[in-house]
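Appendix B, example 12.
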Amino acid sequence: MDTQSLFVSRVCPVAGEVRLHVAACGPLDAPPLLFVHGFPEFWYGWIHQLTEFANNYRCYAIDLRGFNLSSQPQAVAAYKAPLLLDDLRAVIAHVGGRVKAVVAHDWGGAVAWSLAAQSPELMEKFIVANSPHTMCFAKALAHDAAQIEASQYMNWLRAEGSEAVLAENNFQRLAAMASLKAQDQRARYRECWSRGLTGGVNYYRASPLRPDTDETKGTAEKILAALKPEQFRVNVPTQIIWGTGDVALRPVLLEDIESHVPNVRIQEVEGASHWLLRENSREVNRCIREFLAA
């Protein structure tokens, strides 16, 4: 089956000249789901979930600003958290004002955690895969040596010119990082990446959450101390799906999650990598379906 034929593309105006591309599928009158990808992916990263849930839900998968067919502002300041949150709010307003669930991964999860905390009225449920809650991540970046070491890639991506290095040899390094094995997958992702990578790496440049370097010692601790946990409390029913084999995001990031998300379920996928949406799609889809039906 040609999965592309399932989808229609829409453009959602956000603010100023920013436009977000949305791929939509499923019955128009079905409960809506919003899928939010991470780095270095795009809407197609949800293909196994979209083809599964389009039978019973109206599915919307966006390209975040800076990615693929959405606007790609070049300034780092264009990727500050309030702007990213407003993007998601605008998309939800565009598709009806409230969704059955927001389903998010990686950077999409980082934004959606804050959306669930600040705008819970926009979603009935929240589902997030391998993306840490803000408070848990900040604590680990300040105090957990193993997570600090695992997060050093963030400082590499923040560096000037990282996008040029990622684009070398027809994006060979990036394809390996994203664990893209099938030739058709690589072709789709390279087409996306050829539209620009600066927006994607600007998420790392704009974020205050990152491991310390020799020049910034003590910064992570100061950021943790400045955060107000009540601003990040999520009361929306939440399902966390976590691949325990993720080398960048360690299981320590789940510790004490209940104090920030009291109505939470956790499903660990033993040995699964960061790319569990593709590599463990059957188990991920089963967990999503059970949570939506609960």
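The chain has one domain: 3-228+235-293. The radius of gyration is 18 Å.
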